[in-house]
Amino acid sequence: MAVVVQNILRADQAIINGLAIAGAATVHEALGRKGLMQAHIRPIFPGARIAGSAITISAPPGDNWMIHVAIEQIRAGDILVLAPTSPCDAGYFGDLLATSAKARGCRGLISDGGVRDIRDLTEMDFPVWSRAISAQGTVKETLGSVNIPVVCAGALVNAGDIIVADDDGVCVVPRQEAEATLAAAEKRTELEEMKRKRLAAGELGLDIYNMRPRLAEKGLKYV
Amino acid sequence: MAVVVQNILRADQAIINGLAIAGAATVHEALGRKGLMQAHIRPIFPGARIAGSAITISAPPGDNWMIHVAIEQIRAGDILVLAPTSPCDAGYFGDLLATSAKARGCRGLISDGGVRDIRDLTEMDFPVWSRAISAQGTVKETLGSVNIPVVCAGALVNAGDIIVADDDGVCVVPRQEAEATLAAAEKRTELEEMKRKRLAAGELGLDIYNMRPRLAEKGLKYV
Amino acid sequence: MAVVVQNILRADQAIINGLAIAGAATVHEALGRKGLMQAHIRPIFPGARIAGSAITISAPPGDNWMIHVAIEQIRAGDILVLAPTSPCDAGYFGDLLATSAKARGCRGLISDGGVRDIRDLTEMDFPVWSRAISAQGTVKETLGSVNIPVVCAGALVNAGDIIVADDDGVCVVPRQEAEATLAAAEKRTELEEMKRKRLAAGELGLDIYNMRPRLAEKGLKYV
Amino acid sequence: MAVVVQNILRADQAIINGLAIAGAATVHEALGRKGLMQAHIRPIFPGARIAGSAITISAPPGDNWMIHVAIEQIRAGDILVLAPTSPCDAGYFGDLLATSAKARGCRGLISDGGVRDIRDLTEMDFPVWSRAISAQGTVKETLGSVNIPVVCAGALVNAGDIIVADDDGVCVVPRQEAEATLAAAEKRTELEEMKRKRLAAGELGLDIYNMRPRLAEKGLKYV
Amino acid sequence: MAVVVQNILRADQAIINGLAIAGAATVHEALGRKGLMQAHIRPIFPGARIAGSAITISAPPGDNWMIHVAIEQIRAGDILVLAPTSPCDAGYFGDLLATSAKARGCRGLISDGGVRDIRDLTEMDFPVWSRAISAQGTVKETLGSVNIPVVCAGALVNAGDIIVADDDGVCVVPRQEAEATLAAAEKRTELEEMKRKRLAAGELGLDIYNMRPRLAEKGLKYV
Amino acid sequence: MAVVVQNILRADQAIINGLAIAGAATVHEALGRKGLMQAHIRPIFPGARIAGSAITISAPPGDNWMIHVAIEQIRAGDILVLAPTSPCDAGYFGDLLATSAKARGCRGLISDGGVRDIRDLTEMDFPVWSRAISAQGTVKETLGSVNIPVVCAGALVNAGDIIVADDDGVCVVPRQEAEATLAAAEKRTELEEMKRKRLAAGELGLDIYNMRPRLAEKGLKYV
Question: Which of A103, D111, F61, F75 is the most exposed place for a label (fewest CB within 10 A)?
Fold first, then answer.
């Protein structure tokens, strides 16, 4: 039952980097409004904006042994995704693991558990999105798995899926949909730029999107 | 049932600005310890300190159509107050809506739902206090109402009430009580300044407020 | 039942300061993974890192009278620890109390209730770790106790225990274990420094800690 | 600031009783989908179904003094509605207060705080809907108010409004809308009875409500 | 994007019924400790114990239109599984929908949203496991999908997977693993029966499972 | 660090049984309003009312090994008290462990984690108060301790303290205070009986407790 899947497929790095620029909200829209992790996953410091291929970790509550195993599987540009098998906010990950992960090219961690050594991680500029911050220690006693499909914060993540994370949250793009999603995201960003200018000039969304007839038809009354 | 109330009364702008300077905690005290929103409403970035007249929005879960309608009702100095009709943390509001609201003079948003585009809103210096940060998209399918009385984060808000928001939270001042509240708040601020000096000099609250006799009478024992 | 214990024992100041440098996560490990407060206790601003002797406060919900009583008991280097007798997030503590506490040498506050005047506290550089931020006012009507044993955020605190607080959370070190804990923490910090260098150089935890044989024995499969 | 409003208006008892029969969900619909308390308010035992005129209580956290004051204001058929001024789950109400309230004709309690003596209340068949069950004691030290407007579990309640409570939750009907709401609720119940028969016979909602054309128009695909 | 997948594969009915008898906890163990929904999903009445093939529903927050669409897809023995696209506790489902679903042979509903008409559903003996009970109404405005993969309360559910639900919670068995899981569950049940007899006779687990040597080896001290 | 304390002191059985009759709310009052566990600890079925000597268990998240160790320490009349070292709602305890504990005279379990096999436990009439119900399995890999002081749901529990649990919650009575607490509880019960009769006859608490002068003095206004 405890396995490490070693040779996973990854999306093209240029596509991944494009998704990072688009950001979680735009990518989520471009993907058809799916793949978003729940809002309890928050960054430990503001301003980070990354994308990378998911190395998934299924770990027992309060046991971070599998993170060591997962780090060996990292290639430059990957992101660790940790899903405890039952809800747990213990501090699975700290500055030593971050040092190791960073040395192998890891861009960050998404944890549906806890994280610690916040000050060090901030100084290292190693971004983490997590359910909790907790100094609580973990053990290394029970196996889990690496690179199997996991549900992390309500989102299904397959190894090699693209994780897009910023201040708005974390979105998961299935590897096979990465290219199309980037294309849609870039088109969306372009359109939004035009809308932004009109809105900034004082035009109303009611007019730009021609909402007034449909509002009236639905029965909205002005009093 | 779906209405937009167009001509609402607002308090005097000088009074509103005075309340902003006093801040949420002092205003809440000056108002007789009422009107406070629940503590789950937090600012998306620290340091903002605003007051303004409430434009209220009652919106279905996951549907931000009425925000477009509400923006047309904004006058310079207003604050949007969004109350979903059932608990929802979807991302009702982002940088495009903020651009539009700001173009009309809006000072900020209070949302008992979610908000997104945090980085853009921070760069725009458009303050938001919300229940959640979420990239989750919303739809434009179902009507709600604008400028009807709403309960937002446990506080009753009538259109035109004064919203006072800072790092401590959000307080709602009924429009009719604005002037008296400002007077009480200013008196309170003045008194606090005197107390602060005495406390900073090392005097004890036990002595300044003459608490010792009443503590003894209630039965406090020193051992 | 309402008592103030006046002459409490404190640990040596040099030991306390050493624990502050070690930080909450390392101290928690050095102490044998106990004494940690729950993760809902968070700092009101990032970066603070303090240790001090606990002045404990058992207070009724929404009543901050005993904080005034507690402040008189503060000696330079102490930390206030507030435990409401039933869950409450009202704003027990603000800038006036902080001014008074600071004048007596207090290093900070741990509150399993709420706190307010965040902006002022931040400007004063007076650190607080709390369950909530709330402008909600409190009363001064019901007695509590000072310097009795309390449970704060899930951790037992006796007056004079050492509180270690930073961005990772809050750890409580029993006074009698302070010296041994510091020794263990310093050894641990030293060891971590060596590990950090090896990990930064690209060595794997799997190898440094010789995990591979035990992983294989437990049945981990690579596929 | 602490007041007891003594002569409140109540709706007609026959209308109130009719609303009890309709139940919270139907009344909420008949009222235009407003007035519902939040879902954290749950009954202490299943099966109760009541309606009555609200006697509102605004009480400090952990202080049940005002409940004694409110009980004097009860007339036969009334329901107590308790709103703490800040979140609190202490046991404000138990079998002694229930005995007193029942002796005056009270039909039940809605509490956005805690309640205790669950076994006794169940044996007395005195229904309570509350945020929490807690044996935590309260004090009688600080004034609050009776029969002022309160926000209880997210719903505005004016004294004399009709409270409708059952296993689905608690709905508040403004006194002035009681008669119209009952009429709408009874019509709704009648219509539902017809629909129930058709659905029980195997007809689909898709056909009864003629949903297929609109689904197709919106773009639903069958694959 | 909005699709209804019509011809889904189902497991053998005898296997499904066997899984119902085994119950959620045993099935979860037999499956290798995966597939469990989160503990916030609770039954609306105690004692129900069902299994069935999943008809999955992805629905917007506060919009129950797709449930009508899903009911047409039900075959005798199926269970509805509702996953809102963002967290929502509105009352998506009540006695009319239950009447319709039951007429088509539906065994129950799993809802990561809310449910209402609790008294009627209990009298109908129609079991529901849900995140919340709420009388809050929903709309029929926005499309979703039926029988696509969904994440419900943290568990991945594909249409046709077997849902096993009882007082312990809800477990999802992938259709392809149903037969092997049942075999493992039945073996486990048998083994447990033997253990139960020995434990009831006063033997200790420490001895039955021969735990003492390993406890000693790990360093457990008896004092 | 992992220890089992074997010879603990227990209170007199007659006192323990008297405390069970008094119930958690009365005992909590008699004890001076301390010792109460937090309200998230709820019984798995209504109506149980027990007291017993605490066998405490400190266990890692998701690891129930120490429960087996603890069961050997049970004497007739004891109650197990399980405190995970970090928040965890996994199903630590089920019908096999209950069978074993019951065979040794155990009266019930208090768990600040999860529990499973609810139907079996209910049929066995083995009462459990817990944070969560969850079918999630646990492991047996990491040591904890038995009969050391623990904090369970916010209350300090020493081995041999008396646990009093009923539908109102769970109260912990320090062993040394058991006799005095029982005496105070019985006096309180007697007094309440008299008050109950007067209240049932329609007398008001306002008059029985002579509250009117103090209310007037504090400034309560009747309008």
Answer: F75
- Which parts of B104-177 fold into alpha helices (H)? 118-124
Nearest residue of A to residue F88, measured between CA atoms: A88
The tokens describing E7, both together, are: 């011809």
Reported as a single tens digit per residue, the pLDDT across E111-152 is 999 999 999 999 999 999 999 999 999 999 999 999 999 999
Residues B68-120 have pLDDT tens digits of 999 999 999 999 999 999 999 999 999 999 999 999 999 999 999 999 999 99
Q: Dihedral of CA C195/C197/C198/C203: which sign?
A: positive
**Six-digit token pair at C61?**
């919900």
Distances from the Cα of D174 to the Cα of C101, D10, E189, F214, angstroms: 49, 10, 56, 34
Q: What is the pTM of this model?
A: 0.96
Predicted confidence band at C1 (pLDDT cuts at 50, 70, 90)? confident
Residue whose pair of structure tokens reads 């889904």 in the numeric block: E8
Residues in chain D: 223
Exposed, middle or buried by CB within 10 Å (0-12, 13-18, 19+), for F166? buried
Record: contact F205-D65, CB cut-off 8 A? no
3-class SS of residue B34: coil
Contact yes or no for D90 and C86 at CB 8 A: yes
C-alpha E151: how far from its chain's center?
A: 12
Of residues F94, F99, F104, nearest to E25 (C-beta): F94
Integer angstrom CA distances of residue C76 from C102, D177, F145: 9, 62, 37
- What residue ranges in F120-168 does DSSP mark as E strands? 128-133, 145-146, 150-152, 155-157, 162-166
Strands C108-115 and B169-173: unpaired
Q: Least CB-CB distance to B86: which of E85, E136, E142?
A: E136
| Dihedral (CA of F88, F90, F94, F96) sign | negative
d(CA A127, CA A44) in angstroms, rounded, equals 7
pLDDT tens per residue, range C2-32: 999 999 999 999 999 999 999 999 999 999 9
Angle between helices D178-200 and D13-22 (to 10 degrees): 30
Chains E and C lie in contact, requiring 3 or more CB pairs less than 8 Å apart: no
Question: How many residues are present in chain B?
Answer: 223
- The whole-number pLDDT of residue B191 equals 95
Per-residue pLDDT tens over the stretch D172-199: 999 999 999 999 999 999 999 999 999 9
Judge whether E36 and E166 are in contact, CB under 8 Å.
no
- Smallest Cα distance from B171 to chain A, Å: 25
Tell me, what's the pLDDT at D1?
77
Residue A211 DSSP class: -
| Radius of gyration in angstroms for the set of CA atoms belonging to chain A, rounded to a whole number | 20
**Residue % of chain E over a pLDDT of 70:** 100
Contact D39 E72 (CB under 8 A): no
How many angstroms separate the CA atoms of E83 and A67, rounded?
Answer: 30
**Pair B86, E90: CB distance under 8 Å:** yes
Angle between helices E95-103 and D178-200 (to 10 degrees): 0
Tell me the pLDDT tens digit for each residue of B107-161: 999 999 999 999 999 999 999 999 999 999 999 999 999 999 999 999 999 999 9
Residues from chain A contacting residue E39 (CB–CB below 8 Å):
87
Most distant CA pair in chain D: distance in Å?
A: 67
What is the pairing mode between strands E42-43 and E128-133? antiparallel
pLDDT at C56: 98
Closest residue in B to A49 (Cα) is: B119
Phi then psi dihedrals of residue C81, to 5 deg: -125, 110
CA distance F66 to F3: 10
Do C154 and F84 form a contact (C-beta atoms < 8 A)? no
